[in-house]
Amino acid sequence: MLRRTFFRLMVVILAGCGLIASPANALVELNINKGNVEPLPIAITDFLQGELGKKISDVVAADLKRSGLFAPIDRGAFIEKISNPDAAPRFEDWKVINAQALVTGRVTQEADGRLKAEFRLWDTFAGQQMTGQQFFTQPENWRRVAHIIADAIYERITGEKGYFDTRVVYVAESGPKTARKRQLAMMDQDGANARALTNSNDLVLTPRFSPNRQEVTYMSFENNQPRVYLLQLETGQREVVGNFPGMTFSPRFSPDGQRVIMSLQQEGNANIYTMDLRSRTTTRLTSTAAIDTAPSYSPDGSQIAFESDRGGRQQIYVMGADGSGQRRISFGDGSYSTPVWSPRGDLIAFTKQSGGKFSIGVMKTDGSGERILTTGFHNEGPTWAPNGRVLMFFRQNAGAGGPQLYSIDLTGYNEQAVPTQGFASDPAWSPRLE
Amino acid sequence: MSRIDTPAVGRMQTIARNPVMIALVMTLAIAGCASKKNLPNNANELGLGGAGSATPGSQQDFTVNVGDRIFFDTDSTSIRADAQQTLDRQAQWLAKYPNYAVTVEGHADERGTREYNLALGARRAASTKDYLISRGVPANRLKTISYGKEKPVAVCDDISCWSQNRRAVTVLGGAGM
């Protein structure tokens, strides 16, 4: 059912028509660490030629707009009609509508059937090309090309890697709360190309991507034996992870993809184990009479954050990858759970329960500098975009209905609903495909 | 994917690191206190059937006349006094009908995170199983499974529902580990 899309892509940098910027000539840029950033007005013209060109520029514009950092200008305001995307535009025409950046492009079909998509990003006030690239790919990959172009624009202007060419695995939910159906699903980060990965016969929870995006580890109640599974996305092949004498749950990959870390339930206790996927050996990392769960590696693999109620309520702890030096890092009011280490390594995102509300927040890896990003009736389960700038989580509002996915900037601004067909929970953002 | 890549033109300036601090201090940390009274203890009290109408030794007899479920306080796995009475009846019934193996299903209310609630449900199932064993039910007749917060029976946004969902249900037969 699922096939890996081999994405043969060639990137060629387009020379800038003789408009080379000197280093002294500062180009348009955006400081995205400032919090509530004023979105940068950007004109994204329809790529020539025809319907596909328009669709690609629509996706580019939608990605940039959802980031909250860009304000694509209404095409109806455009004065110049781009007829040759290789030539310098009439910068005055774009400055007058306050477009600080301009994107032009073209899509053509090669003789061998491949699609060639090219774009140029212009700084209208400096009167210079900022970047230009072309891509060759199969026509069915047009949305990915659009996301890659959006990533290139985002990176060129913000100085940070983009996150648009990524996917999200999640639990798709349907039906009433007392008879809820759940299945694994995967979609592009903008909600497009959503598809089911499992049927809805068995309860499935907490899917997580492998670092190479080819596998998902998750928990399933298949045969009424709640266990951690591994799913190969290319083949659809599934296997149980390990042979443990009890329920295994809350899995996650190590950063090198060689191990799955998870909890094993034995009677009243949950402890954290790893299983090496090659040697199949298991290692026990915690040994308490408490609930130790939700383990998450630091990006260098040297440390593990997890939650434990060994001190009474759930709190976040950190330990070495071998289980050494276990120490509590969360000390605020309420309880803390689902720690997730940032891909940059500097922060840990969490769910916080306090005063009858559920919040998503971040703290430094020593527990200091706590910041709450969003608070409400029920927010849970943060996951990081691979650039560490954006978090996704799920929210259940009071009343009927079910959970929905949301994204929010690390700054706490730009909260956005992530479109899914039905209810959705447990999002996990994919790494970037390099 | 293949990539032919050299920077075209221009150069980005290094961006100053200046994270905005949004410190939101939560001061209300009182967890919901559970009501320990007036909770239904069996299907009859839940209005699911008439007492005495079931065939002795049947599933319905167990559910209606004995009571198939007990309830817990928030975040607690202690067997309450009212629950002990129910489990005592279950143990007597299971002694009388020794052919049944049972599975204890542990559940949590929705006011917690998914992973923790899976473990909490397992803890509740385990403490229920331990109590039944202490009342003479052979361990080899008892299995447990936790569904965390994923299978609520009551749906609303206050304690009247949450207190019904924090439960352990003894299921004749059933699946589990």
* DSSP, total strands of chain B: 5
Shape of chain A, please? Answer: globular
The CATH superfamily of the domain at 59-173 in chain B is known as OmpA-like domain
Alpha-beta content class of chain B: alpha+beta
Q: Could you say which overall geometry of chain B the principal axes of the C-alpha atoms support?
A: globular
Task: Write down the CATH topology of the domain at 59-173 in chain B.
Answer: 60s Ribosomal Protein L30, Chain: A
Alpha-beta classification of chain A: mainly beta
In the CATH classification, which architecture of the domain at 59-173 in chain B applies? 2-Layer Sandwich
Biggest interface pair, residues each?
Answer: A-B, 97 and 61 residues
> What integer is the average pLDDT of chain A?
92
Tell me what the CATH architecture of the largest domain in chain A is: 6 Propeller
Please render the helix and strand layout as text:
The complex is a heterodimer of chains A (434) and B (177).
Chain A: E1 10-13, E2 40-44, H1 50-66, E3 70-72, H2 91-95, E4 101-109, E5 115-123, E6 128-137, H3 142-158, E7 167-174, E8 181-188, E9 195-196, E10 204-209, E11 215-220, E12 227-232, E13 238-240, E14 248-253, E15 259-266, E16 269-276, E17 282-284, E18 292-297, E19 303-308, E20 315-320, E21 327-328, E22 335-341, E23 347-354, E24 357-364, E25 371-376, E26 379-384, E27 390-395, E28 404-409, E29 416-418, E30 423-429
Parallel strand pairs in A: 2-3, 2-4
Antiparallel strand pairs in A: 1-6, 4-5, 5-6, 7-8, 7-30, 8-9, 10-11, 11-12, 12-13, 14-15, 15-16, 16-17, 18-19, 19-20, 20-21, 22-23, 23-24, 24-25, 26-27, 27-28, 28-29
Chain B: E1 2-4, H1 59-67, E2 69-71, H2 81-96, E3 102-107, H3 114-134, E4 142-148, H4 159-165, E5 167-172
Parallel strand pairs in B: 3-4
Antiparallel strand pairs in B: 2-5, 3-5
Helix pairs in contact in B: 2-3
